[in-house]
Amino acid sequence: xxxxxxxxxxxxxxxxxxxxxxxxxxxxxxxxxxxxxxxxxxxxxxxxxxxxxxxxxxxxxxxxxxxxxxxxxxxxxxxxxxxxxxxxxxxxxxxxxxxxxxxxxxxxxxxxxxxxxxxxxxxxxxxxxxxxxxxxxxxxxxxxxxxxxxxxxxxxxxxxxxxxxxxxxxxxxxxxxxxxxxxxxxxxxxxxxxxxxxxxxxxxxxxxxxxxxxxxxxxxxxxxxxxxxxxxxxxxxxxxxxxxxxxxxxxxxxxxxxxxxxxxxxxxxxxxxxxxxxxxxxxxxxxxxxxxxxxxxxxxxxxxxxxxxxxxxxxxxxxxxxxxxxxxxxxxxxxxxxxxxxxxxxxxxxxxxxxxxxxxxxxxxxxxxxxxxxxxxxxxxxxxxxxxxxxxxxxxxxxxxxxxxxxxxxxxxxxxxxxxxxxxxxxxxxxxxxxxxxxxxxxxxxxx
Length: 448
Known about the structure:
Blueprint: H1 25-30, H2 35-50, H3 59-62, H4 72-76, H5 78-82, H6 86-92, H7 127-138, H8 160-171, H9 220-271, E1 279-280, E2 283-284, H10 302-355, H11 361-364, H12 407-417
Antiparallel strand pairs: 1-2
C-alpha cells in the first residue's frame, strides 16, 4: 500500500493574471494575436528564397508537356499497348465515297447537255447464277447430252397422207391478232407557210441588208437622218416614261389624300359620340362624363342570323353569275377576233401566193423594225438593239473600229419575225430534281 503524503506547495487559490481592463483600445491592440500573419510572412520569405511564388510563375515553368511517353511501358505491357484505341481507329478510318456537296448547284452536275442512255447493270452476279455456279462446282450439271441415232430422214419421200396434211396446213392462213396500231399524224400546220410578224405582212428575209446609215463610215446626209430618227424615238420613250411617273405620283397623292380624309372623318365620328356638356370650375371637358350617344346593339337571334346568311349567299350567287356572263362575252369576242384574224391571214397568204415569183427584189427586202400589233404567242418580240455610233465615236481608220451587235440575238429575232419560232421568256434557273443519297449496304454483296 502506497504511502499517502501531504501535498506540497501553497494551498492558496491560484493567482489571476494581473492585467488591467481590456476594454480599452490600447490594451486590445497590445494583446492581439498576430501568429497567423507572422507564419504567412515566414512562408512568403521561404518561397522567395527557394525561387519565387508559385502563383506568380507562368505555366511553362511549372508544367511540362510529355509528347513521347514512357519508353518502358510498351516493354512491360506489350499486350495492351499494341492494340490501338477505338477512338483512334474511328478517326483514322476514311470513307472512299466523297462527302455530299452542300452547295445549291454543285459543279458535279454540270454536263455537256447530252442525257446518257439508261442501261441495266451487268457487273454483278444474280442469285440464280450464283446457285447454278455452286451446283456446277459440286458436280451437278443441269444439262446432260444423250447421243441418239437419227430417227428422221429429211430427204425421204413423205407419205401421201402426211403430204396432204402438210399442204392443208400451208394453205390455211395464220391467225393474226387484232392489234390496232395508230399511225402518228403530223399537225396540220406543218404544211402551212409560217406567218410573218412584220407590220406589212410580207416575208422578211433571214438577213436584212443594211442601209448606208448603218456603215461605220457613213455619208453625212444618211447618218444625220438616222440620228434624228433615233433621237425622236428616244425622246418619245423618255416622255412616255415621265408621263407614267407623273400619273403614278398623282395616283399615290390621291390615295394618300383620300386616306387622310377617311381618317379625319373617322376621328370626327368618334368625337361626336361623346357629349361635351360637362363643366367643372368654368372649364368644359368632354372626357369627364362618358355617355354613349346611341343605344347598345342587341344580340341577334338565330332567325336574324339565318336571314343575313341567306342574303349573303344570294349576293355571292348574283356576283358569280355576273362574272360568268362577262367571261362568256369575252370568250365570244375572242373567238370572233380570232376568226377575223384567221380570215385576214388567209387572204394575205392568198395574195402573196398569187404574187408568187412576180415580186421584185426590192419587194423582198422588207425591214424588221415595225412588227404587227397582234403577235403570236404569250410574249412579245424582243426589241432590236440600237446599232448607232455617236458622232464622237466615228473613226476614220478601220483599224480603230470596234465591232458591235450580237449575231446570236439577230438570228433569234429573225426566226421569231419570220414565224418559225415562238417568242419565249428567259428562265435563269431551272428546277432540279431532289437527289436522295443513300449508303450502300456492303454486307449484302456476295463474294465467291
